[in-house]
Structures are given as C-alpha cells and as structure tokens.
Design goal:
It contains 17 helices and 17 strands. With 510 residues, the protein is α+β, with helices and mostly antiparallel strands. Among the domains are: 93 residues, OB fold (Dihydrolipoamide Acetyltransferase, E2P) (Beta Barrel); 261 residues, BirA Bifunctional Protein, domain 2 (2-Layer Sandwich). Strand 15 and strand 16 form a beta hairpin. It is globular and about 85 Å long. The two termini are 34 Å apart. It binds 4-amino-1,4-dioxobutan-2-aminium adenosine-5'-monophosphate and magnesium ion. 4-amino-1,4-dioxobutan-2-aminium adenosine-5'-monophosphate (4AD) binds next to strand 11, strand 16, strand 17 and helix 17.
Length: 510
C-alpha cells in the first residue's frame, strides 16, 4: 500500500485521502472519539478515530492502540491550525502493526530523571525533544559539509586506530593491534596535516576518543570531530575561517530547523545575534584580565555581571515564592477548573525557574572566587569560560595561549616562546569551548624539543616530522566538537542528548 509522509502534507489539498504509517505518540480516548498524536518519523500529526466513521467494532479495536503502538491510518487529511502539526486525519480505516504494552517512558523527562532516560536511550530517542535534537544535528552535519565543499575543501578520512598520541598521553584508549599497542584516535589532525600537503584544503569528519574520566555535561568518551587543515594558513586566517564557518552552519539551522527549535524552546534570537555579530578576538592574557574583572568589555565587567546575576536570581526566587503563595491561597479558597489549571501551570513554571535560580545562587559565588583568583598561565575551567563569555553575545576567540597547557604541535608566538598560536572558540551562555585550533609549528628543531618535553617517543613521529623535511609550509587548522555544537545550538544542559548513543565516563549501554 502506498503511503504518505507527514513532512509532505503541505503539498496535498484539503480533503485528500491519505495513509500514514507510524507510532502512537499520545492517546486521548472519549466515548465517541480516539484522538491520537501520531509520529511517522518525519513529523507529528493528529489522527482522529470516531465511532461514526469506523463503526463500533473497529472503534473498540482502536482502543488497544496504546503509547508507542505502531499502526497505519487512512483517511481524509484536513487542515486544522489548532491541531498538532497543523493537520488532522479523519480516519476511515486503520491497520495495527503492533500493540506496545507499558512503554516505560510515560512521564515528563524531568520526572523520569536523566539516569533512567539514559538507560532507556534506545526508546528515549522516540520522544519529541530527541526527535528535534537529532534533526538539528543532521542539519548541522549537512551545513558543515556544505560549507567546506563550497569552499573547495576535500573531505578525508583519518585512521581511527593509531600508533601515537596527538593530544597528550593522559586520555588514550589503548587497544591491541596484532600484538602491538595501538590507540583509538584522539584527533585526525596529524594525518590531516599530511594530507593538506597533498591536497591543500582538507577536512576530516569522524569519531574521536578520549578516555577522560570526566562526568561533566560536556565530556564524551566518543565524539565526532570536524578538523579542517589549510596549507599556507596562519592563525589569523584560521580565525577568519572559524568565524565564517560557524556563522554558516548556524544560519543553516536557523533556516531549516524552525519547527525543531520551537519544540526545544530555543531562543533563536540569540543564534541570530551570533550570525549577525562579529566574533571578538581576545589574546589569552587579555582574557585573563577580563575574567578577573580588571578590564571591562563595552562597559561590561565580568565580575560585576556575575554579582548582578546573583542578585537577580535571589530576587526572582523571592518574588516567585510570594507569587506562588498567593496563587496557592487563591486556589484553596476555590476557583473554577479552567482558572485553577491556568494557575497550577504558572506555579509549575515558576517552580522550575526557582530551581534554575537556586542553582545559580549556589554556583555564582564559587565562580566569582575562581575568576578573581585565576592565575595567568592556567587553563580556563568551565566556570571561568562561563564568566568570561558572559560579557559577549557572540562566541569569542581566545588566541595566543600559554605553551605549557597546549599540545606539542602548536607554533610558538614570534619572540615569545612561552606562548603558542592556538585559538579556542568559546560559545556564550555558559557553553564554553566548542572549537580548538592553531597554527602548526614548522621548525623541526622546536618540534623535536617539544616532543621530548611532552615525553612523546620521537620514533612515533618521524613520519610527521617528514612533513617539515619536505616542502614544509605554514599551515593551520582547527577541530570542532560536533556534540558541543549541537549542545549549544539546541541550548541543552547535557551532551548526553546530543548524540544518539552517548559513550561517556561510566556509560556504554545501550
Ligand atoms: O581542543 P581539542 O582537544 O583539539 C584537538 O583535538 C585538535 N587536534 C584540533 C585541531 O586543531 N585539528 O578538541 C577539539 C574540540 C574541542 O574544542 C571540543 O569541542 C571537542 O573537540 N572535544 C570534546 N567534545 C566532547 N567530549 C570531549 N571529551 C571532548 N574533547 C574535545
Ligand atoms: Mg581544546
């Protein structure tokens, strides 16, 4: 039987007979009608099975269609603004594929809690929010390819089994390669460098692995990284590329993912500001001064802003609590059902805002302490990134980092070997680092010294050093963490929602 997809509904005339195949997303039964929110994977619609249209027997049968049961519905497609997805199907016949008994995810995500959901990831993926996120992820991926392909880059695949470390030896997953130790790749960069001497502009797009024992909202053990590498590029041109690239992919999702962002409650005006704004470039040493409050940006002081945020959070909690108490009192005194429902909804909303504010009240004082005491030469922690980026409305590029905290391959700053030409792109609103890149060291003697300092085995890097022996040229590149980008674009608290099956510290199933 021919069937239609929800995503194509706009092309059909009102009243067209259609068939959809999918799953029951929500059920509401009355004596004479079953209302099904229905998902076919391409979208959501409402299917109405009424006793008058299908007859008593079929109507009874349709009663069995529980949450996540699968079925095909046939009937008239009717435009209905108030209905889910703007359409409704007045069902004349249906076919049941499977009746799902007791689908485990029934409540709001919050009520189930993150552990339960992560354990049921294979089923959690069916929920609307996850549907929206995975579609944004898909468009980001397409936007990434689109950008590089239009710009003349060649996509290359770097190996996943590697014989040496790229980003330091502390977080390597070791495995056995025919009796020899091998590692899951932390980054395709070194191979991209080799390829860029053959093809000039290249990019990798593949999985990377870090055995970081970090149970944080932004660390995965397996994540997807996009690593462009450009011959004859410097860190300055690298930064220009980063800005064009990020703006391109963000504009694409703004254009393609209206429905998804709406479902996620994403404030898209913030992403619009990213596309329209200019990404500031701030040297590390200057960033430290912004962070500890000794210099302002456009009249904004990082520490003062945190103090203001703290006060605002405290005020919100107090105001909401008073408001809630008044509404609860009024509800108790007696209220019509509609008004009561409305007030209860408002109360629930305020309670969740209070939770967020309470979290801020707990965190901000620590963040301020850490920011004020930040020592030049250290790496920014996640709270430092939050405090620093708070003064900007677009992502900010921090460049020229202390050599000590960066990888061996980064080029020394001319005349100042304590610093290297690295660049991190920090996303606003607490999302922090989403890109890390650099101009690469071309001086073979400096590289040899760095390899030794980083306690790496020179023999493992002879092939890499060949790139400096034969037609060495200035070159630069960067790495974007796809899940970090998804997290920021969709405004998600945790990376566990950014990839279909997250692998992170302590979590490998399902
Ligand atoms: O800053 P990183 O470690 O840089 C590199 O790997 C370079 N080789 C890139 C290059 O110049 N070609 O990682 C790059 C990005 C980070 O900015 C972050 O977005 C992401 O990869 N990333 C992670 N994402 C999720 N979980 C982790 N554990 C991540 N570690 C890095
Ligand atoms: Mg980094």
């Amino acid at each position: 039987m021919q069937h239609q997809y929800i995503q194509d509904f706009a092309q059909y005339e009102d009243g067209t007979e259609i068939t959809v195949k999918g799953w029951i997303d929500k059920v509401r039964n009355s004596k004479t009608n079953h209302f099904f929110d229905f998902r076919d994977g391409t979208g959501f619609t409402q299917c109405v099975v009424s006793i008058d249209a299908v007859g008593e027997e079929a109507f009874e049968l349709a009663k069995n269609l529980s949450l996540e049961s699968s079925a095909a519905f046939s009937g008239k497609l009717i435009r209905n603004e108030r209905s889910l997805g703007g359409y409704e199907i007045q069902v004349s016949s249906f076919e049941i594929y499977h009746i799902a008994k007791d689908f485990p995810i029934t409540k709001e995500d919050k009520e189930h809690g993150p552990n339960f959901l992560e354990e049921h990831r294979h089923l959690w993926l069916r929920r609307r929010r996850q549907w929206a996120i995975n579609r944004v992820r898909n468009q980001l991926i397409m936007g990434i390819h689109d950008f590089f392909q239009q710009d003349g880059f060649v996509q290359m695949d770097a190996p996943l089994l590697t014989g040496s470390a790229c980003e330091g030896t502390t977080d390597l997953f070791e495995t056995d390669f025919f009796g020899q130790p091998a590692y899951l790749s932390q980054s395709g960069q070194l191979y991209a460098e080799a390829m860029s001497m053959a093809m000039n502009k290249v990019y990798t797009f593949g999985p990377t692995f870090r055995s970081e024992k970090s149970n944080t909202p932004r660390h995965l053990a397996e994540f997807w990284m996009i690593e462009p590498e450009v011959a004859f590029a410097t860190n300055e041109t690298n930064m220009v590329l980063i800005e064009r690239f990020v703006k391109h992919v963000i504009s694409r999702v703004l254009e393609k993912c209206t429905i998804e962002f709406e479902m996620l409650g994403r404030d898209t005006s913030k992403l619009q500001a990213v596309v329209e704004g200019e990404f500031p470039q701030v040297a590390y040493t200057e960033a430290v001064k912004i962070l500890n409050g000794s210099i302002d940006v456009d009249g904004k002081n990082a520490i003062t802003l945190q103090e203001e945020d703290l006060r605002a959070a405290k005020n919100l909690i107090e105001a909401h609590k008073t408001d809630i108490a008044e509404r609860e009192k009024a509800i108790k005194a007696g209220m019509k059902k509609g008004a009561r429902k409305h007030n209860e909804k408002l109360i629930a909303k305020m309670l969740s805002e209070i939770k967020v504010a309470e979290e801020q009240v707990r965190n901000i004082p620590e963040w301020i302490e850490s920011a004020k005491n930040f020592k030049e030469g250290e790496d920014f922690g996640s709270s430092d990134e939050t405090v620093l980026t708070r003064v900007f409305s677009t992502p900010v590029m921090v460049y020229n980092w202390p050599a000590k905290i960066k990888a061996f391959y980064m080029k020394e700053v001319d005349g100042n070997p304590d610093y290297v030409k690295g660049v991190d792109l920090l996303a606003p609103d607490g999302f922090g680092e989403i890109i890390g890149g650099s101009e690469r060291e071309t001086d073979i003697n400096i590289l040899l010294k760095k390899i030794e300092e980083h306690q790496l085995d020179q023999a493992d890097f002879e092939w890499y050093l060949d790139l400096r022996r034969f037609g060495s040229v200035p070159h630069a590149g960067f790495g974007l963490g796809l899940e970090r980008l998804v997290r920021w674009s969709c405004d998600l608290h945790h990376v566990r929602e950014t990839i279909p099956f997250p692998r992170r510290y302590g979590h490998i199933k399902p």
